[in-house]
């Protein structure tokens, strides 16, 4: 499914780029990771770009409801349309992004070796295994502004900058736990209920991530 979505995003703009007289490649770095891309100038006011960005970061979520390590993998494939209102360097950008951003969630024990799920403490013997994942909408719109036209005819090397927002939707958290050997059924059922409630609470804590700020700078080369 992921490969299909990536192919659909690329297929929409690739024929335009191949048939255009101006073609450029660029590398970038920013809040959505390191990226590579290609762009073309359709005319002096419009351009199109394809881009790929990826990166990995780690974060901790610690509060009274539990301690979690979040390993976030950023991965996006973008198809962008650029509008240069004054036929210069400034541009407004809109597009669709295949959003592969996701995170693996690991429950962390407290200093005493116990776990806290939804504010309830469980011993390490109560917990057999824990698995968690955070995902976002697989397709997300992007809006932004920027500076620099990678495929401009006046020079081969150039600088690019993008500032915008990826509307990736509120995170969806899915946590599950298995109980340790010999854990009483009522305790096991309560722990599983607390883990599910903790996932809902974590979604609320991370709701601001539905708007991902994008700030990128890069270097382009026109062929």
Describe the structure.
The protein has a single domain, classed as Porin, CATH 2.40.160. Helix content is 17%, strand content 56%. It is built from two helices and 13 strands. The strands form two sheets. The protein has an eight-stranded antiparallel β-barrel. A two-stranded antiparallel ribbon has the order 7-8. The longest helix is centred in the last third of the chain and has 21 residues, at 185-205. The radius of gyration is 22 Å and the shape is elongated. The two termini are 33 Å apart.
Order of helices and strands: HEEEEEEEEEEEEHE
Straight-line distance between termini: 33 Å
Shape: elongated
Summed up, the domain count is: 1
Concise account of the structure shown:
The chain has 223 residues and is an alpha+beta fold.
Which short descriptors sum up this protein?
alpha+beta, two-stranded antiparallel ribbon, 13 strands, about 15% helix
What topology does this entry show?
Layout: H1 2-19, E1 23-30, E2 33-41, E3 46-63, E4 66-83, E5 90-99, E6 102-107, E7 115-117, E8 120-122, E9 127-135, E10 139-147, E11 157-167, E12 172-179, H2 185-205, E13 211-222
Antiparallel strand pairs: 1-2, 1-13, 2-3, 3-4, 4-5, 4-6, 5-10, 6-9, 7-8, 9-12, 10-11, 11-13
């Amino acid at each position: 499914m992921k490969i299909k979505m990536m192919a659909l995003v690329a297929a929409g703009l690739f024929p335009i780029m191949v048939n255009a007289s101006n073609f450029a490649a660029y590398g970038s770095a920013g809040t959505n990771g390191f990226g590579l891309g290609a762009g073309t100038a359709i005319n002096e006011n419009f351009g199109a770009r394809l881009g790929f960005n990826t990166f990995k970061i780690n974060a901790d979520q610690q509060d009274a409801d539990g301690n979690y390590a979040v390993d976030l993998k950023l991965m996006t494939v973008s198809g962008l349309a650029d509008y240069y209102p004054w036929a210069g360097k400034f541009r407004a950008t809109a597009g669709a992004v295949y959003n592969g951003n996701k995170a693996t969630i690991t429950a962390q024990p407290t200093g005493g070796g116990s776990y806290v799920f939804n504010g309830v403490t469980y011993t390490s013997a109560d917990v057999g295994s824990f698995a968690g994942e955070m995902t976002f909408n697989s397709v997300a719109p992007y809006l932004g502004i920027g500076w620099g036209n990678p495929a401009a005819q006046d020079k081969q090397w150039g600088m690019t900058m993008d500032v915008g927002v990826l509307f990736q939707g509120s995170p969806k958290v899915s946590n599950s736990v298995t109980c340790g050997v010999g854990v009483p059924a009522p305790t096991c059922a309560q722990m599983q209920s607390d883990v599910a409630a903790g996932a809902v609470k974590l979604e609320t804590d991370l709701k601001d991530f539905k708007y991902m700020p994008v700030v990128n700078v890069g270097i382009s080369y026109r062929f």
